[in-house]
Amino acid sequence: MNALNEFAPIGVLLIVAILVSLLILVISRLFGPYRPTTRKNAPYESGMKPIGPANRRYSVRFYLIAVLFILFDIEVIFFLPWAVVFRDMGLYAFIAMGVFIAVLTIGLIYEWKVGALEWE
Length: 120
Prior knowledge:
Blueprint: H1 2-31, H2 38-41, H3 60-76, H4 79-89, H5 91-114
Helix pairs in contact: 4-5
């Protein structure tokens, strides 16, 4: 029961956020202008009429670079907790982060040598 009391503020905040979101949607629908036309519902392509299908094929390289960016971006997030506890952990934290950075560097060098970062 004690754990439930600890999470009660989060539950209240979640309920309030949902209610406020629904209230805003209802008020905007009731009082906002709503006059749909075929021209308003058409897709917008920078002022030009859309030509061809909406879904186009992308190169696999685009996805590869996107995944690599996300991978390295998420790994950089681990630097903040390390920096916070660095002084408390001392030499162990320094060695652990050194190994972590070494693995990241080896991975980056490998991707660079293979040509995964080249955009053609």
